[in-house]
Amino acid sequence: MASSASPETPKPKIIPGPGGYVLEDVPHLLDYIPDLPVYTNPLQDNPAYSVVKQYFVHVDDTVPQKIVVHKDSPRGVHFRRAGPRQKVYFHSDDVHACIVTCGSLCPGLNTVIREIVCGLYHMYGVKKVLGIDGGYRGFYAKNTVHLNPKVVNGIHKRGGTILGTSRGGHDTTKIVDSIQDRGINQVYIIGGDGTQRGASVIFEEVRRRGLKVSVVGIPKTIDNDVPVIDKSFGFDTAVEEAQRAINAAHVEAESSENCIGLVKLMGRYSGFIAMYATLASRDVDCCLMPESPFYLEGPGGLFEYIERRLKENGHMVLVIAEGAGQELLAESSTQKDASGNKLLQDVGLWLSQRIKEHFSKETMMTINLKYIDPTYMIRAIPSNASDNVYCTLLAQSAVHGAMAGYTGYTSGLVNGRQTYIPFYRITEKQNKVVITDRMWARLLSSTNQPSFLHPKDIIEDEVDEASPLFDNGNCNPS
User: Fold this and answer.
1) 9-68 pLDDT tens trace
2) In CATH terms, are 13-230+385-427 and 235-381+434-471 the same topology?
3) Most CB atoms closer than 10 Å: which of 74, 392, 445, 462?
4) Residue 268 among known ligand-binding residues
């Protein structure tokens, strides 16, 4: 279904209310295709759901972005609550859905695919679901895979993605041409911030053409660097698996004199995996992340701290995120991958070599260093129980929203509730560890490491980060 009109790029749907209430709403097909037929939600006749009291979400239900506020604070920003609506804008027999996975691997991808397919089949009776092979470029360069509950039955027990994935290759015109030519009217896009930016552009082109197509994103990033949402799927699994590497490094370090166990974990721009794995393991003596600069030599530097810990304990475990200390590498790369991400140097190998050189030349102490990089092992494993449940909620929420006619949104968890978040909020910035926050203080207390910052730097950071702290809901401005 296409309209002859070519509407302008829409402005964000902001709905103000009393007491400072602001709803950052998501687009709806009715915004640019008036007089769409409305259908009764088939869930009301589904025996699995009809017995649940108040199963349908009220039209006015919203979720606040922040929980901690003052008694006199305005009500703040809200997002539309996810869930099934009493009325839907797609007849089940007319739905032709597709699913695509983009970017790097992450635990839980197959679970999300499985639950989208099963949700469409079992909740709404949708029988036509395609899997796009090989990421965005698969829309116009690859074959498709027919998906049904039998095909996806056990895929959640496997790592990776049965659909394949890739970076880049985003030709919006060709993608929307393919969507239109195939008669697809629901597009489920699973990927990180770059993928969601691509999804936003696809939605705008779909809207410009006046197509009755719901474009839905499911945020995927193992680094947990997508803003607004509580966490991304796969993160819990990554932290759990990272502890195995840390435990191995600890065993190695304890078993030899003056031994250093060095573990490199994922975290291109955000050190959440390194931080949470450190806090969970309690065996780490130092954690280095992209958000916290450090230096090697001189008083208060990393070398001095390592030497002190070795003299005190006879061993040490050091965790470093892949994006930490990139500014210290002599041959810092300016090249980028297909998704536009800067290609990083291997900081783990570099730091290993620098530590060995320092202790062989500058001190009389003989050390033994064990380096562990579990990156690809962590990315390739199936998701754990916690992430499997989360993936199910994300997928089902995405399906409910698409059937209800919403489009141009990402399904995500905000303050423990499933919500629909407009694309522009997901892509506006990256979620990062705030090194003037309480969580960072907990890490420093757990490892007993120095912050590697001078007091003047900390004061400046507090001023600079005051707004992000409040915006992220981590604390209030007082």
Assistant:
1) 568 999 999 888 999 999 999 999 999 999 999 998 888 776 676 789 998 999 999 888
2) yes
3) 392
4) yes
Chosen CATH of 13-230+385-427 out of 3.30.1050.10, 3.90.78.10, 1.20.120.530, 3.40.50.450: 3.40.50.450
- Reduce the DSSP state of residue 312 to 3 states and report it: helix
The verdict on whether residue 406 carries a ligand-binding annotation is no
Q: What are the tens digits of pLDDT across the range 236-294?
A: 999 999 999 999 999 999 999 999 999 999 999 999 999 999 999 999 999 999 999 99
pTM of the model: 0.89
> Any known ligand binding at 223?
yes
Whether 347 and 264 have beta carbons less than 8 Å apart is answered as: yes
Level-2 CATH architecture, domain 235-381+434-471 = 3-Layer(aba) Sandwich (3.40)
Q: What is the DSSP string of 57-88?
A: PPTT-EEES-----TTS--EEEEEEPS--SEE
Residues 6+ apart with CB under 8 A from 128: 95, 96, 97
Nearest CA to 156 out of 379, 388, 393, 411 is that of 388
Contact indicator for 418, 394 with CB cutoff of 8 Å: yes
Helix (H, G, I), strand (E, B) or coil at 260: strand
Residue 169 dihedral angles phi and psi, to the nearest 5°: 70, 30
229 is in an annotated binding site: no
Instruction: Tell whether 195 is in a known binding site.
Output: yes
